[in-house]
Amino acid sequence: MIFLTRRAEFSSAHFYWNDAWSVEENERVFGKCANRNGHGHNYTLEVTVAGEVDPVTGFVVDLKELKEILEREVVSVYDHRHLNLEVPEFTTMIPTTENIAVAIWRRLEKKIPNAKLHRVRVYEMADLFADYYGEP
Fold this sequence. Notes:
This protein is an alpha+beta fold. It is 29% helix and 29% strand.
């Protein structure tokens, strides 16, 4: 089994807010991140796929094709967007780093030919990161 990782970057704005809570509870739990105007981050995304090497091509997956999939499914959707306001999955899910990793997994899970999605890692500017390996 071979593991390959491709990196991409995007910049997005977001805020943290739970509609079931009061303004005071949102501000207490999320602090400055509860500002409904939002704030932005530069993110680094690493997607790791696993598979066997094709004896004819020598590839597990064509990295150019993987780059195109990441661009189409993630970067073009998330880059320079306000996640809460412009990205469908975050109308009902708080766009924490952890939830961004889960959402990206769901976007990519069945779209990478000849390889199995192994890991999605999302880094924020402050080197905080979340790994997602799929459902247990």
